[in-house]
Write a structure and sequence with these properties.
Strand content: 5-15%
Oligomer: single chain
Order of helices and strands: EHEHEHHHEHEHHHEEHEHEEHEHEHEHHH
Strand order of the largest sheet: 3-2-1-4-5-6-7
Helix content: 40-55%
Shape: globular
Largest sheet: 7 strands, parallel
Number of strands: 13
């Protein structure tokens, strides 16, 4: 048995893949410890997993106004990514380091998320074995597969002309990334360490093992990825783990599914539901205009439209793994967890990106032929209905989505990740 500490920060999309890996490691007889915000203890306790609290302390879902305020600031399309560092990470770096040092006492291995900035200096100070991870291809910043940035998505069309253009941009971006990383550089100096690589670029990657926790159907390996990268496939976990949740689909939801043709599912994952705005009301109008049944996963009661016409139903939550295979299509925000679930279900998608990696994920869904993209700023009933009609009238989207789904269902990201971690532990 090995003690394996898994450090992550963020929303359910940043937690669920590691829960899947932790459960697989536990099944194999290891002792996984998830080092993350205290707010997730209810979830880990329900699964029999250890949680070691690590700053920042984020508000719980019982504080909806606080959560909504935080998410609104951190998902701003232009400034959200910077605010993640300025508000969520940098003010807590020393506390993160100290808490992670305590969590890894006596541990055999540390596994880090891209925002676990305290991990690499801790590795240098203690010598603990280390595996880093990325949840989405954008975190690997390839010159050969340029990213789509949320504050300037049009730049991608210039960068894809030649890898040299991406190299020029990334040299310019490094200056900005170094500004964001200044508090980390100060912490490293306090610890007696050299400055090291930029934590958003080369500094985030372990020299021993980088786990790319997605499918090659979504992101193909590139020549400039770290040479020790292992593409595992998506690790899946999608239970909310709240008291009172049904074991499977809500009986009323099942009744709606069985009452007619498969619906189009409209969902915003676990974060964008807090900044939904008019997404759901416009979606109802779009579904009616496109002539399809619709199922809304609203997350919060305040997102539920006042009146739902016939053929439209709204529910707080449903596990994607059980719902999406029964859908005709899915309209979602492009978070990596929701994107992965939609691809696994084999249904075509309209991706409506809000911020962060969602624009890049939307481009990838479009590029592999499994869906279309419509930016949130342009999401209205008329434009959404137009995209839905285009998606559902072209059989190539349905066919391609089914092919991608078959490939992803044949993979097991949690098993592949656990295999790679055990191999690293064996040396």
């Amino acid at each position: 048995m090995k003690k394996i500490v898994i450090s992550t920060t963020g929303s359910f999309g940043d937690l669920h893949p590691y829960i899947a890996i932790a459960l697989e490691l536990k099944r194999r007889g290891h002792r996984p410890v998830i080092a993350t915000s205290e707010v997730y203890r209810e979830k880990t306790d329900a699964l029999g997993l250890e949680l070691h609290p690590v700053p920042p302390d984020v508000p719980s879902y019982d504080q909806p106004e606080e959560v909504a305020r935080m998410v609104s600031e951190l998902t701003d399309r232009k400034k959200g990514s910077e605010r993640v560092f300025h508000q969520l990470i940098n003010p807590h770096l020393r506390g993160m380091y100290d808490a992670l040092a305590e969590a890894t006492r006596g541990a055999d291995l540390l596994v880090t998320h891209v925002l676990s900035l305290a991990g690499p200096p801790l590795v240098e100070k203690t010598g603990i074995r280390w595996a880093s991870t990325v949840l989405a291809p954008i975190s690997l910043f390839s010159n050969y597969d340029p990213p789509v940035f949320p504050n300037a998505p049009w730049v991608y069309h210039v960068l894809k002309l030649h890898p040299s253009l991406t190299r020029v941009l990334m040299r310019a971006a490094r200056w900005k990334f170094d500004q964001l990383a200044a508090p980390l550089y100060r912490l490293r100096a306090e610890l007696g360490l050299k400055r090291g690589g930029n934590p958003m670029l080369e500094g985030q990657h372990s020299p021993s093992l980088v786990l790319a926790l997605f499918s090659t159907a979504f992101g193909r390996p590139q020549p400039d990825w770290p040479p020790n990268t292992v593409v595992t496939g998506f690790p899946f976990y999608d239970r909310r783990d709240r008291a009172g949740d049904p074991a499977g689909l809500d009986p009323a939801l099942v009744e709606f599914l069985e009452a007619g043709e498969p619906p189009v599912v409209f969902t915003l994952g676990s974060s964008a539901i807090w900044v939904a705005g008019d997404f759901y009301s416009e979606s109802v109008k779009a579904a009616r205009a496109a002539g399809v049944r619709a199922l809304l996963l609203v997350g919060e009661e305040r997102n539920r439209p006042d009146k739902l016409p016939e053929g439209v139903a709204a529910f707080d939550y449903a596990p994607y793994s059980e719902l999406l295979p029964r859908a005709r299509a899915v309209v979602h925000q492009g978070g990596i967890g929701t994107t992965a679930q939609g691809l696994r279900a084999g249904v075509p998608a309209v991706v409506v990106p809000f911020s962060h990696d969602q624009f890049d994920n939307a481009r990838r869904v479009s590029r592999i032929g499994a869906g279309r993209a419509l930016p949130r700023a342009k999401y209205r009933a008329a434009t959404a209905a137009e995209e839905l009609r285009a998606l559902l009238s072209d059989e190539s989207y349905t066919t391609r989505a089914a092919e991608i789904g078959k490939q992803i269902r044949a993979e097991d990201g949690a098993v592949a990740a656990a295999d790679a971690l055990e191999e690293l532990l064996r040396g």
